[in-house]
Amino acid sequence: xxxxxxxxxxxxxxxxLLRSSxxxxxxxxxxxxxxxxxxxxxxxxxxxxxxxxxLISTGALPAVLSESAGPYRYRARRLGGATxxxxxxxxxxxxxxxxxxxxxxxxxxxxxxxxxISAAGSNASVAGLQMLVFCVxxxxxxxxxxRVEVLFGYFCLGAAWSLLVALATWTVxxxxxxxxxxxxxxxxxxxxxxxxxxxxxxVARHRLTTAMNTAYDQLLTARxxxxxxDAAYRHLLNLLSATTPAVEASVAMVNAxxxxxxxxxxxxxxxxxxxxxxxxxPPPPPVPPGDPDPVxxxxxxxxxxIGKGDDRxxxxxxxxxxRLREWAGSLASGPLTWIAALRLTxxxxxxxxxxxxxxxxxxxxxxxxxxxxxxxxxxxVFGRAVLRGIGTVIGVGIGAAVLGLGAxxxxxxxxxxxxxxxxxxxxxxxxxIQSAFVTPLIILQMGLAxxxxxxxxxxxxxxxxxxxxxxxxxxYLLWPGxxxxxxxxxxxxxxxxxxxxxxxxxVEASSGEARLARSRAxxxxxxxxxxxxxxxxxxxxxxSAHGRQAVAxxxxxAAQERVADAVTEVGVxxxxxxxxxxxxxxxxxTAALGELAAAVREQxxxxxxxxxxxxxxxxxxxxxxxxxxxxxxxxxxxxxPLGLVRRFLPYHRRT
Length: 655
Known about the structure:
Elements: H1 12-18, H2 27-47, H3 50-66, H4 72-96, H5 100-117, H6 122-138, H7 148-167, H8 170-173, H9 176-194, H10 198-224, H11 231-255, H12 262-277, H13 294-308, H14 320-333, H15 336-357, H16 364-374, H17 381-404, H18 410-429, H19 431-447, H20 455-477, H21 488-505, H22 512-539, H23 545-571, H24 583-602, H25 618-631, H26 636-639, H27 645-654
InterPro entries: Memb_transporter_dom (IPR049453)
Pfam families: FUSC_2
Membrane topology: Multi-pass membrane protein
């Protein structure tokens, strides 16, 4: 297995939930968050009115919460859209705040719109969340006694400031994010080939897949918005495309249990440094004397190919009306978006009603908690509710205690800087960490216009608990299908992607179009497997049947990855003195993968399928048989929906 399987005897969902992602601290994002949020407070305090600085820094918060790594053009669209949506939501909340007859239906309507537009993509989803969050926050701003137009002006000023901070270095750094992404591919190649342990090499291969996906996404996104002078982006994209044969050969070597010479690893490190510095690429190392095996020969040929570059057809930008039509089609094609919108709207409406009934100051925090936790497409509802509860309880205690103890002046500015940096770290490490820092920051921003007291501590804690209870009870426990296992379909999709890769990789690519199709099929298969792993990591945090089923499927995910690696090992040797497999054998492999996908999708035991007995495909066949054994394994009943468990019990008695 490529990932350790959680221990069923332990609360695996809790371990997975509290686990922090082992990623480096994004110091550039930390610095931008500190400058965007703390500088307005510092300037306003120096000018004699820190409350104004708090209102301005509130406008900077949408961009900080929506920040992500990537090309400047991508970040400009993401942050600009989120800030614009937050501004619209804030204005709606300001205009209706203080009048429950207007504010309650406005918040409910914004929640529904927020959920629906999430189907348009990741950027639209982030924008929808910011619109809901700041609409809810604005409904409580009438308590400040400041005029609506003044509050809105401060918010817009903070929003403009945060966008300036986020994008200020665009003119001098230009293609730096894209160069970093391409260089990271070579770093991960060197790490994978340097690993001496199988488990470590598997993790390195996963990181290489992520690096490849990230680099392609960033470059294709950047180029799709360029109209003319795109020579730098085109060069990087050609370089990345030319690296594909070396990536395939490296994966094949690792899968075969072999390692290249140190000069190959050093060459990948040198390539990374050259790309980062924008310098000419170093020459590849010479081929070792003698007659190397086909996989090693493919690796050295791949190194030569990197130096020669590659050429790709220009990607045409997708017109805005086509993207709008695709989004409208996604809304009409299935009920998932509407179900998510209904759940969010219902729970937000319940939170608004509870907020009116609970005699707590500024109880809009209940609705805020519900909206953030239950927002669609951000992972497990159960997991986010628990992490939000833990993080917010900690954060509320910190933030409210700061106000209650009467901290002021530069102490508040310094604490705001710390909280801002913590938000940037939490975004990439753990949602609970992010909640623990964003909560006291919002409390400071919302409370600087008033005198803090210890009653705020109890109010914020009660509001947070009530919001999490509404989500867990009405959005999770009582919501139809929320705990139903639903992971088999994703596994089947991954198997179909691997089958497509088999049909392209195990034939001789005699033309440039065929080689490009094979490269795309390989990327599609490994991207599908990476997405599958991410989806299951989100699912295992649930203690319900859904989480137990995800745990039971882990061996099948690992088996899919091993099949793809074995196919890569065979594919890189074709055309280098090794003929392609018999087409009939390739059809047997794709048919077996199709049957395995159908069995997973239909939650049944797979039928026995004929497999090739050619020596060339023995590694692929061995891994495919392991995949069949994993599906038929002792966890089969755990994977099936509860109503189908009895159907599989006779098989378990046989085994």
